[in-house]
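Supplementary Methods S3. Input chains for the assembly prediction are listed below.
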Amino acid sequence: MASVPQLQRQFIEYTTSLHNEGYLDDQFSQLQKLQDESNPDFVVEVVSLYFEDSEKLLNNLATALQQKSVDYKQVDSHVHQFKGSSSSIGAQRVASVCVHFRNFCEEKNLEGCLRCLQQVKQEYILVRNKLEALFGLEQQILQAGGSIPMME
Amino acid sequence: MTTLVAMAYSAVRRMFDQVSATLSSSGRNHLPSRMRRSRSDVNQDEFRCYSVFVARVAIMVMLAILIGLLTLLTWHFTKVYTRASLNSLAYGLRYELLQRPLLRMWRILNSTVEITTSQVRLSEYVIRKYGKGENQAQQVELYESMRDVTWALFSSRRALNSMSIKYRNGFVQAFQRDLRDKNTYYIYSNLDNYTMVEPYSMNRSSTHQEWNDQMIHGNVSAIWYREPLDPDTGRKTGKQQEIPPDELINIAGISQVPDGAASWHVAVSKFTNSPLLSAALPVWDEDRGSIVAVVGVTTALYSVGQLMKELVDLHGGHIYLTSQKGWLLATSSSTPLLRNSSDGYTLMMAKDSQDEIIQSAAKWLNKTYHHKPPLNHEIHSATATLGHERYYIDSFFLNLTRLPMVGVLCIPRKNIMGKVDAREIKTLFILISASVCILVVGCICIFILTNGVSKEMKLRGDLISHIDARRKAEASSNFKSQFLANMSHELRTPMAAVIGLLDILLCDDSLTNEQYATISQIRRCSTALLRLLNNILDISKVESGKLVLEEAEYDLGKELEGLIDMFSVQCKNRNVEAIIDLSDDMPKVVRGDSGRVVQIFANLISNSIKFTTSGYIILRGWCENLNSFSNNENFFVDQRALWSAYQKKIKRNEKRTCKSDNTMILFFEVEDTGCGIDPSKWESVFESFEQADPSTTRLHGGTGLGLCIVRTLVNKMGGEIRVVKKNGSGTLMQLYLILNTPVDIPRESYRLKFAEHNLKVVLALSGRMSGSIISRWLHKLGVPIWEANEWNELTRILQELFKPTSYTQNLTYEHSEAESLNKEGVKMTVFIIVIDIGMLNISTNIWKEQLNFLDAFTRRTKFAWILNHDTSNTIKIELRRRGHSLMVNGPLYKTKMIQIIDAVIKESRLEQSKKYIDSHERLHMNTKNSNSSEITETNSTGSLQNEETNQENFSVYGVVSNCFPELTEVRSEWGQLTSSRNDNSDCEQETRQADQKVKNGQKALAGLHILLAEDTPILQKVATMMLEQMGAKVVVVGDGVQAVEALNIQKEVENVEKSCEPRPFDLILMDCQMPKMDGYEATEAIRRAERESESHIPIVALTAHAMSSDEAKCLQVGMDAYLTKPIDCKLMVSTILSLTKCRT
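Predicted structure tokens for the full assembly:
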């Protein structure tokens, strides 16, 4: 088992890379700042809520787009919601794909929508993996008895 | 008539069919033709012409038919009525004409009858008297008396032709008038052969025939004599002549009165050429047993003919009279009535008459009535054609018992109706010609009218197509703007990425020099491209009407100074001075869109920099209160022109400007010493893609969009911009903006403040222009000032000021003496030397010696150093080492000057107090340092210039104070702190408290009760967390319906128990897009409900749409503020506080 400072450094590096690669943005750091002693699992809670919500939304989207006559309004509202939740968690790349998705929705371009759905799914899975990895690191640090370093 | 109506009907019908066909075809063609107008304009025109032509023809035909009908009807009615009346008149005339000869006939007959009857009576009387005559003598006497009587009667009637008596015994007595030779004759037979007895012995019962035949035959051999008589007296005038019996006259015999009654017949005499009417009457004896004699009277019908002639002479035409069998009795013509046959005259039939008219009339009658002339039936015909003329034929009956007669009247039609017919024809002709004229005129009128209409139609069609085209053009331009707006937005994102990536690359150390140069070139290009994109975005935003100006309070001066700071770097590189000169009366805080105002000046200044290679760029600003403009202000040449333009504008929207009292007009000038703009281009430089000189693109680059954006923005803010004439080279742009200022902003009066301290300033600036502006300003404030533009000048001034030999130096000494004397509170002179770093000769090492020189004055003066952006750290460190702590970044402008002066004054105060308590001073310095370092960590200016940053912090707080009430408190306490520093020994403790307070600012929302309406659970969670961390109490609902309900429940509870244990919501955070009921609807519902209770709960919108139009929509439905997702914590807190502040 690695030492706490090493883990901490790893954590910081990982978080920074996430920010740099555009997976996450300031909103996520804001979330992290909101977390304090009274609410130690805040970020995890929110993020898991996000996962649940997103999976539901993605399923909804998939079924909505498989309909014979696609209700673009509904799809649009789903995507809007997904974009909102993604941006409020700081999942920047998901949110940006959502923007394209909505454009296709407006054009009623089924092909584009399906392509975007795939992209969104990919991005979402990516972000989920990254976040899960991050939480894993956090968990390790906590187990090792260290404190989670704050990001600047 | 009916056929005519039918014809007209069919014509009208046909026409209607045609018209309706064209109409329907035009209706059918309408839409498609509109759609393919562009393709077939020619066809369209042809079609239009054709339809006009058809309509014209149709109208003309209708008019023609109408007028024709009118004419025919008029003619018909006039004709019918006149004809009817004329016919009745003609009938009367004809009747009258025919009646008169008939009457005459009647009279002739009557007189004949009368004569005959009286002859009979007289004969009876005479015969009775002499009837018993037995002898010859008596017989002779009887005859003599009979002769006398008969003569008497005969002579009394001139019209009589002859009168005869034939006795039973065959003796004949007769008087005759020969109408040809006007002689009267007496005719008698000789008496020798007659017995006197015989008549009386005759058996009374014997038949008349027997008597008659015997007598006549018996007398065949009797000799007849004739003797001429004097027609008047009846005397014998000549000798008697023997004549053959029955030769001359008709003697009525017994055979003519077979039944003893009177008889009539028409006879023909040898001596007259006219038929004769003869009557015969028997003379009875006393007891009427037997006939003793027969009286015969003959009358010529000549007089009837004569009358007829007279009648037709007047009226024309012919009259003739026939017996019922057709024998011609009398005519109006002079043709003979009798036929001269071998056995003398005989009567002739009317149809054999030599007069053509009478002949043909008789033939016509025969033909018409089939040879059976109807009895007792009068014929009236107006249509008989005799010969070649039309005649009226009328017949009448004269019903005598023995001799029925028929009268026929033929009048040529033209005699009666001739004129009428002629007039009728004339009338018809006139009518027809008149209607033809009307028709022609009408057709011409229609042609002219429809010509106008068709022209108008054509014009209208053109107009419609033009309008269509214009609309299309507008739409396409709009599309273009939209497209540009979208496109540039999309383009900006990748550009930002490109630039970011380039920055990363530039940071890489492993690049070769060439690569580095290339990349930096790329970066420059990218930045330029981005700027262009931004400009296009702005332009298209304005054009598509999406530009909405914000309304927020901001510090205009600070923004502009920041702008100058920014550009000064660029200017310094180009050796151009960037100067800002804002007048003191400029309002500190104005309302408006700071970003756009800054953009205006940024565009103007960058434009100026682009074209200015040396000299200076000045941004001047001054202000006019709308209500108090005085004309004596003649600061700039062309201001009055600008002002008059503005006044014109004011007149136009007087209402709007009068509403807000604290509206300010801010005048600005941007002046440079560049190449200038040709006067002819002064207007056009503000157009899109327009540059004063096309060649400048090559030289200076740029798109020409900058000034266009500027003008649009200025106009949008209610101002105007123009280029004005300038003395010397360069450009002078003047503009004014109308901005609102918050009411009652206190203005610091520097004059007072500076006047308190005995200030003296030495300005040593490398830029001439900025120096002179500052010095002029300070001069106005009453601060003595010396200016130096180069090192040598500065040394001269300093030496003059501080060397004991000079007068000023004496003065200074006096002051210093005074200072030393009045240590308690007397103000001492403060020297400030503001010195540009450019004064030092940095390229060589001389600058250190220069500093050494200045060190000599350090004790007596305060140095303020103006640094450049590229001033190296070593110099800064050196300066600090030498105790020059007061350093500001160039360029120097008023605010910085004020800061410098403030800092100096404070420092001098501190020094003053230091002289009293040394320990205090150190403490104070510590706190000050700690405070300032704490704050300057966040400040980019650096931590070196303590005093200056301290000052800046104050102004920062001043600005922020509007949004952060808590912080305002802090600030005011802070102010108290600093002001009471001098005598405060435990200020350290106090400042710590203040720090804590600042930290507590995070709990800014403590005690607030907030309703959060948000459907996304994640956002719910995040927002709740944020708010709760700030100390607010949050109630979360999932949609708009719930939000409204939550408010209602709360209200009910409030109404029931006044204790108001569940606190009312202070604020609602409302997501705009929610299921069931979205934020807009919910807000509207809440606002409706509030209208009754007259309360107002602040509602803040949360939306993912970051467009200003959404903001407008939010505000329109009644929301108070607007936050975008993802939520920015600080912004949210400030918004919430500003909304709740006014309530609590």
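Chain B has a mean pLDDT of 71. Chain B has 31 helices and 32 strands.
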